[in-house]
Design brief:
Elements lengths: L1 H16 L19 E6 L2 E7 H6 L4 H9 L4
Antiparallel strand pairs: 1-2
């Protein structure tokens, strides 16, 4: 619940002050509805990036697809 409260607070701050945040996470569930752009990395190398909706709906890299399948997004 505290994680959800933090996300809500960051979204509110973003809306009120038009700030940009960089969120580094291994929790894919945080991405949906929180970020606009996403960068997927594997072993420290960027393998895919773009608009979150586009990357989640049509992942171009097999690793990205695998991650989203694990999180039940595909």
């Amino acid at each position: 619940e505290s994680q959800l409260n933090l996300v809500k607070l960051l979204k509110k701050i973003n809306e009120e002050l038009s700030l940009t945040f960089i969120c580094i996470t291994h929790d894919i569930h945080l991405l949906k509805g929180f970020v606009h752009k996403v960068i997927i990395m594997k072993e420290g190398i960027i393998i895919e990036q773009g608009d979150i909706k586009e990357v989640m709906s049509i992942p171009k890299n097999p690793y990205t697809k695998f991650l989203f399948e694990l999180a039940n997004y595909s």
